[in-house]
Design goal:
Number of strands: 4
Distance between the termini: 43 Å
Largest sheet: 4 strands, antiparallel
Strand content: 15-25%
Order of helices and strands: HHHHHEHEEHE
Mean pLDDT: 80
Strand order of the largest sheet: 2-3-1-4
Shape: elongated
Number of helices: 7
Number of domains: 2
Low-confidence stretches: 5-13, 223-227
Structural class: alpha+beta
Length: about 230
Amino acid sequence: MLESLFATTSTTSSLSLASMLIVIASALALGLALAWVYTLHSRATRSFVLGIAVLPAIVAVVIMMVNGNVGAGVAVAGAFSLVRFRSAPGSARDISFIFLAMAVGLVCGMGYVLYAAIITVALGGVFAIYQLSSFGAANTHHDRTLRVTIPEDLDYVDLFTDIFAAYTTYHELASVKTANLGSLFRLTYNIGMSDTAAEKAMIDEIRCRNGNLEVALTLPETGKQAL
């Protein structure tokens, strides 16, 4: 029975109940490991974590039920796994975990439980290392979105150029919007702070320049992880 779990062929003529239960249990265990890696050092919704935990087992069952027909199995399991993204946009990280969980389940369903465990440990470990480190974040953790309200009589084109030169590594005017029946302009800038500790000093200088009207400094709205 156990030899069949490490078979070198992708199709089987019959499937025993014991083998099926072992494959499902293995897929659930590996899915739980992937779900734990996904939650490391990040916020995660309970529903998505549960989905990651059970997805390998679902894919494994589909592969076993189509008797090793990988094409049919991937088509069915892929359709199931991507239903979530019809109503909610997925980040690059979410989609990567979806495909990793599918791959683990597919390998389990084909009988390569040992290989599935190796894939989980190897790729899950890489995800964990990247997630716990600052890999990929060096160029983004100082990015901010700045919103400034100014009177209509001020020329906004070069109004804050000297301030940005002193406090930012880059700046770009993202949008201009009129407000209060055209008596105000609402400016939105994408900026990179040279030093996040100087945020208050920069805001104070902007307030002196815009007549103490509203100033808001927030994290970027655009999800840089989104595909």
